[in-house]
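> agent: user asked for a holo structure of the chain below bound to zinc ion. Plan: (1) validate sequence alphabet, (2) canonicalize SMILES, (3) run complex prediction with ligand conditioning, (4) return tokens. Step 1... ok. Step 2... ok. Step 3 dispatched.
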Amino acid sequence: MNSYEVLDVDPNTNFDIIKKTYQKLILKYHPDKLQQSGIKSQEIIEENNRKFQEIQKAWDNISTPQKKIQYDKELLAKSFKQDGVINEEIDLDDMEYDEEEEAYYSECRCGGIYKITVEDLENNINVVSCDVCSLKIKVLYEVIEDEIEE
Ligand SMILES: [Zn+2]
């Protein structure tokens, strides 16, 4: 699990909110709190301490905005290596259209290019790969309908 999964927060959430979430969790799982509650079960204590350490470790990766930027880069680099994963969904309207090529373009986070041709669209293809890395996007577009728009 990555740090965001451990803390159960959205990576794009405001840093202060992530910090508050961490603080809440670390209080919740603090060994002192367990001691105060009088719980003697070794199993529960071990599980709690494991969770406590996991939260601390997760937070350590992203505990300052600078560290978070670095960590996010590492996560992104890892995601580049995963094959066949759809990185994001992009609306066709948000892509650049090239009339000469009859294709739509979008820039990948790696600097590469996603390209989907009009022919692809006609063949109902909606997943395309970056020409540099292994990321894929899903292109969102409406199938042409005869219905009258309201
Ligand atoms: Zn790419």
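> agent: step 4 complete. Summary for user: The chain has six helices and six strands. Residues 108, 110, 112, 130, 132-133, 135 surround zinc ion (CB under 6 Å).
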